[in-house]
Amino acid sequence: MERESNRTEKSSFRDPSGFLFFQDGVLYRQINQSYQEDFDLLKKSGLFKRLIKEKLLTTHREADPKLARTKDAYRIIQPERISFISYPYEWSFSQLKDAALATLKIQKIALEYEMILKDASAYNIQFLEGKPILIDTLSFEKFQEKPWVAYKQFCQHFLAPLALMSYTDIRLNQLLRIHIDGVPLDLAAKLLPQKTKFNPQLLLNIHLHAKSQTYFSDKPQSSRIEKQAKLGKNRLVSIVNGLESAIRGLNWQPKGTEWADYYHKTNYSKKAFKEKAVIVERLLKKAKPNNVWDLGGNTGEFSRIASDKKIPTVSFDIDPAAVEINYRLVKERDDKYILPLVLDLTNPSPATGWENKERESLIDRGPVDTVMALALIHHLAISNNLPLAMIAKFFRRVCKSLIIEFVPKEDSQVQRLLATREDIFPNYNQDGFEKEFQKEFQIITKEGIRGSKRTIYLMKSNRKEKFN
Amino acid sequence: MVSVTNGQIHSGWYKIIRMFAKTLLVVTLYLTLAKGAYAYLDPGTGSYVVQILIATLAGGAYVFAMSWSKIKTFLSKLASKISKSKDGKGK
Question: I need a surface site. Which of A199, A216, A269, A284 has the fewest CB within 10 A?
Answer without folding.
Answer: A269
